[in-house]
Amino acid sequence: LAASSAFAAPTRTVEKRDTTISCGAFGSLQTGGYTVYHNNWGASHATSGSQCTYFKSLSGSSVSWSTSWSWAGAPIQVKSYSNVALENVGKQLSSVSSIPSVWKWSQTSSGTPIADVSYDLWLAPTKGGANAYEIMVWLGSFGGAGPISETGDTPLATVTIGGASYKLYTGMNTNVRVYSFVAAKNNQNFNGDLNLFFKYLTSSQGVPSSYWITSLQAGTEPFTGSKVVLTTSAYSISV
User: Fold this and answer.
1) Alpha-carbon distance 104 to 66, whole Å?
2) With respect to CATH, is domain 19-237 assigned 2.60.120.180?
């Protein structure tokens, strides 16, 4: 990751109200109960590139933010995950009735990037314990990006949740079981209940309802691309 500090920052016209969170390896900003993270965790895989993340505004419980990036090399490796997170949730799945969320986003780029735009939801067997499950909900997939999968391009199942169709994949990320719901078509205006994904997993895939929600995140995973800007104009979530 240290090599990323030598990369030139991508060209971006920043609006006056934008606050730069970071153009380095990591950074964060807390606002309205959320944490906006700049997280170039996979930058060491890149042959060149950089990324910056910005806070734009907070209106009530809705946060607006953006991230701009250019990455080259290792097209199957994720370079970063800039995101907005609701941390330290500390609620057991069995006690949660709904997780309403709104996410309005747009993406511009030079050419076709390889990237996803996704929720990243985490579960642990005990309150405050280490995460054992990672549940991703891909609202956007670009350039042939694909999730962790034990079955390659063949999904575990095709399911309809909240009126939308998703292909479900699963695989291991070290010692964490990952379930990825990939939307059949990109959804830039999500307004739904994330608890429906948990309910499906507890009823159909053996995820224990006794597990605890640790963190709920929403952001983008870049693989490769040039002059890409993901803008979230409105984001909110509650448990």
Assistant:
1) 12
2) yes
